[in-house]
Amino acid sequence: MPASRLAGESLTAGYEGRRVLDGVDFRVEEGRVTVLLGPNGSGKSTLLKTLARTLTPERGRVLLDGREIHRYRTREVAHRLGILPQSPAAPEGMTVRELVGMGRFPHQRLWRQWSTEDERAVQEAMAIARVDDFANRPVDALSGGQRQRCWIAMVLAQETDLILLDEPTTYLDLKVQVDLLELLVRLAHEGGRTLLVVLHDLNLAAAYADVLVMMRDGRIEHHGSPEAVFTAAHLKAVFDLDAEVMRAPSTGRPICVPSLGAAAMPGPRQEVPA
Ligand SMILES: Nc1ncnc2c1ncn2[C@@H]1O[C@H](COP(=O)(O)OP(=O)(O)OP(=O)(O)O)[C@@H](O)[C@H]1O
Ligand SMILES: [Mg+2]
């Protein structure tokens, strides 16, 4: 089994008066893309926040490179692990370049301000996420998809080995989603980075994940290869989704076609007045 740089052991976590995770054991495999799937409210973001130390577990522990994460200084964690939270908000008026530059915070020291290394990392991240065309515009004046790409650039500029992304494809058009997932796979397979990504698009998840994880009601129900995890029975049990699962002709990966209701069935259509 590949090594794990990040692992949760018996994690029980939640919010004031609400327990979400209950004794979750979870390992993120090094150099792989792990995709986390689950219905709304199943605890995906809560798990990511707990693994990234944004949320302190009630019980259990998180191990980062074999050491309990709460023993690290904030800057040390930020050197090793970058997280893109779900729906982040940029300070009003902040430009794209400034936001992406925030990813360099862990690399700066009081006596060493902005360096050519920081500049290179920001330029590279902006080019990869394709936000360099609007680098000087305020983030809050961009479209939803452009804004999402700025946040991705910020996490990339941090240049961490471990990257946790909570729904990074929200607001992105399909072509940009595919480009992003291709990039994430390259970062893992060619760059040796470790990625944990929450997605809602089942077919893209099955197409790009090395490891697929399905959560339901704060528990991990299935964890393994897409072939083993992405089955009609699991989709029904986890999402209450009736779907046919088949193989994509070009890749051999599983894909699902949801069973649709009567309104989608062939038949005489109502005439729509011109
Ligand atoms: N800040 C919070 N305070 C209280 N309860 C919360 C908070 N954030 C989430 N919850 C609750 O915790 C449960 C799990 O939420 P979580 O955000 O982890 O789900 P999720 O799987 O990420 O869902 P989604 O797909 O909608 O993003 C939900 O019942 C949610 O209402
Ligand atoms: Mg979430």
- What hetero molecules are in the model? adenosine-5'-triphosphate, magnesium ion
Structural class: alpha/beta
**Tally of alpha and pi helices:** 9
Within the largest sheet, what's the order of strands? 6-7-8-3-9-10
How many extended strands?
A: 12
CATH superfamily annotation: P-loop containing nucleotide triphosphate hydrolases
CATH-defined architecture: 3-Layer(aba) Sandwich
CATH topology: Rossmann fold
Report the sheet with the most strands, covering strand number, pairing sense and barrel closure. 6 strands, mixed
Helix content: 25-40%
CATH class: Alpha Beta
- Radius of gyration, in Å, reads 20 Å
Share of β-strand residues: 25-35%
Distance between the termini: 62 Å
Global mean pLDDT: 93
Number of self-contained structural domains = 1
What does this structure look like?
The protein has a single domain, classed as P-loop containing nucleotide triphosphate hydrolases (Rossmann fold, 3-Layer(aba) Sandwich). The mean pLDDT is about 95. Helix content is about 30%, strand content about 25%. The protein is α/β, with parallel strands linked by helices. A six-stranded mixed beta sheet has the order 6-7-8-3-9-10, with helices on both faces. Strands 2-1-4-5 form a four-stranded antiparallel beta sheet, with helices on one face. Strands 11-12 form a two-stranded antiparallel ribbon. It has helices spanning about 45-50, 75-80, 95-100, 115-130, 145-155, 175-190, 200-210, 225-230, 230-240, and strands spanning about 5-15, 20-30, 35, 60-65, 65-70, 80-85, 160-165, 195-200, 210-215, 220-225, 245, 255-260. Helix 4 (about 115-130) runs antiparallel to helix 5 (about 145-155). Bound molecules: adenosine-5'-triphosphate and magnesium ion. Magnesium ion (MG) binds near residues 44, 45, 86 and 166. Pfam families: ABC_tran (PF00005). GO terms for molecular function: ATP binding; ATP hydrolysis activity.
